[in-house]
Design a protein that fits this description.
The chain has a domain of 34 residues. It is α+β, with helices and mostly antiparallel strands. The protein is flat. A hairpin with a 2-residue loop joins strand 1 and strand 2.
Length: 50
């Protein structure tokens, strides 16, 4: 049995929800989400303008 969870993202005033059946604990899905966020503010803005 897997650890289920939701990933919710807001983009251009709309919400997108993805349901994950497995690996939704912090060390799995949570760590992947945190690692995808750029630490440089300028790089973060560039990633969200397209």
């Amino acid at each position: 049995m897997g650890t289920r969870g939701l990933e919710i993202v807001r983009f251009r005033k709309r919400y997108y929800i993805r349901r994950h059946q497995y690996d939704s604990y912090f060390e799995g899905l949570g760590a992947k989400i945190v690692a995808s966020i750029p630490s440089d503010p300028e790089e973060y803005q560039m990633a969200h303008t397209t």
